[in-house]
Design goal:
By secondary structure, the protein is of the alpha+beta class. Helix content is 58%, strand content 10%. A hairpin with a 2-residue loop joins strand 4 and strand 5.
């Protein structure tokens, strides 16, 4: 295949398939707050004193965790406040989810305060990995004191977070936009320390990203999966297999959330179709309910990363294929999912489990020897079925939605195997798979905007009579 397409696909996989600890929206909030604390402590060599403790034991904790240690910040004794401004989609995806490593705390304020007192901003999406019990206690005290307040920010990008920290007469402001770790502006005491490139340069960067994704199409994805050198994808795909399998097993061992994965296996047995759904659901059970284990995400979402990968891994075991073939199947799944999300956008009222499971269905068809036509029909069947599933935030029921979406993807392949495919003109199905994907993307990005607002208003109890 063309070298430009080959290199672009490699870059897309490396950019998208990265580790994250817990649901990415609360993690992004924690990251913004941790960065604001870091700015106050370290910017321009200044040391803003934040009611430091002086005991030898706590000084040791400060040495290990740097300026952001809870044991050295005692924020509840300070004159200050943390204000967090979020877009509606961020609020929707954080409101009901358990913050990882928090000991069961939920919501925006908990995520922000945990990042503030114990987060390590240098770890980005793993910002909360090293949280201690002392830092959790500090967070609980700050929650009781209402040290943090969240506000809905309207008229901004779907993914928008601004953390404004004021302490002892000093202030820091960190703004994130479009991607979970994409800091676009940092201010300290009203002075801009960092701001993203000028608009022309930023637009050029966005265009480069868009141009790469514009190269995605099902035919070339399958060609790439056949031809890619394993050494070019071994690290990124291998990490996805290792991390996502580990959290799935954790979700099956222990009673997280509604125990969707465990319940499926208990109620229906261990047929491959059940195992594929249960393994993906179990990972979400754990992740949505506070498990601190990392996952490899897809399109900015850990749930989507698990939905893309775990059913495919399970089918590869059932079919006893080689490790190389599993790697290539996961390339199909991940890139088909990213291809669909390129039209939808990162956050929408359109449930991302649908596009992720559709990618898994495409890979399952490919693993079973399906050619381009078989894969295209599987994608069409899946999209014609579950594309109306809405996203009403990150929470325990995401695991059930993942199971439903994977079930639809498996049925889509089963129908295709029996030579059945939904036809052009039936709903949003078009003459070819690319136009069908484009149609579904338009519904998710444009058609569901009002749905997104309605869902948010209902979730924050602002519905109209």
């Amino acid at each position: 295949m063309e070298e430009k397409i080959y290199r672009s696909y490699i870059e897309i996989l490396k950019e998208e398939l990265v580790p994250a600890l817990g649901c990415t929206e609360p993690i992004a909030i924690a990251y913004a707050a941790a960065k604001a604390a870091e700015v106050l402590k370290e910017s321009n060599g200044e040391k803003v004193q934040i009611a430091e403790h002086k005991t030898e034991e706590k000084a040791g904790t400060a040495d290990r965790n740097g300026a952001k240690s809870a044991s050295q910040t005692a924020l509840d004794n300070c004159n200050g406040h943390l204000d967090v401004y979020c877009s509606g989609n961020i609020i929707k995806n954080v409101k009901s989810v358990t913050v990882p490593n928090s000991g069961g705390m939920r919501g925006i304020e908990a995520a922000a305060l945990l990042g503030l007192v114990g987060g390590d901003a240098s770890r980005k999406l793993e910002v909360l990995e090293s949280i201690t019990e002392e830092q959790r206690e500090e967070t609980r005290r700050l929650l009781e004191k209402k040290f943090c307040t969240c506000y809905l920010q309207e008229g901004v990008a779907n993914l928008y977070i601004r953390a404004e920290l004021t302490l002892e007469g000093h202030s820091a402001c960190v703004t994130i936009e479009d991607k979970h770790t994409n800091i676009i502006k940092i201010e300290k005491d009203g002075v801009v320390l960092f701001e993203k490139a000028r608009k022309a340069e930023a637009d050029a960067g966005a265009k480069e990203q868009s141009d790469k994704r514009a190269l995605l199409n099902v035919a070339d994805i399958l060609r790439f999966a056949d031809e890619v050198r394993i050494e070019d994808i071994k690290d990124v795909i291998g990490r996805q297999i290792e991390m996502n399998t580990a959290i799935s097993e954790e979700g099956l061992r222990n009673p997280y959330g509604a125990e969707v994965g465990r319940t499926l296996l208990y109620a229906y047995g261990d047929d491959i179709k059940i195992r594929a759904k249960a393994k993906a659901a179990a990972g979400s059970d754990a992740r949505m309910n506070g498990c601190s284990m990392p996952v490899v995400i897809n399109s900015g979402s850990g749930n989507q990363g698990m939905t893309c990968s775990l059913p495919v891994i399970e089918y590869a075991k059932e079919l006893k294929v080689s490790k190389d073939k599993l790697y290539r199947a996961l390339v199909v799944s991940n890139l088909v999912a990213i291809h669909q999300k390129s039209y939808i956008g990162s956050l929408s009222a359109y449930c991302g489990a649908v596009s992720a499971a559709c990618g898994a269905g495409a890979a399952i068809a490919w693993l079973n020897g399906g050619d381009y036509e078989a894969v295209a029909r599987t994608i069409t069947n899946a999209l014609a079925n579950t594309s109306g599933m809405v996203c009403d935030g990150a929470k325990s029921s995401c695991a059930a939605k993942i199971a439903s979406a994977v079930d639809a993807a498996i049925m889509a392949y089963t129908l295709e195997s029996a030579n059945h495919c939904f036809q052009p003109g039936e709903g949003l199905v078009k003459d070819n798979v690319e136009d069908t994907i484009r149609n579904m993307g338009y519904v998710g990005r444009v058609g569901m905007k009002d749905t997104d607002v309605t869902i948010l208003n209902l979730m924050i109890d602002q519905q109209q009579a």
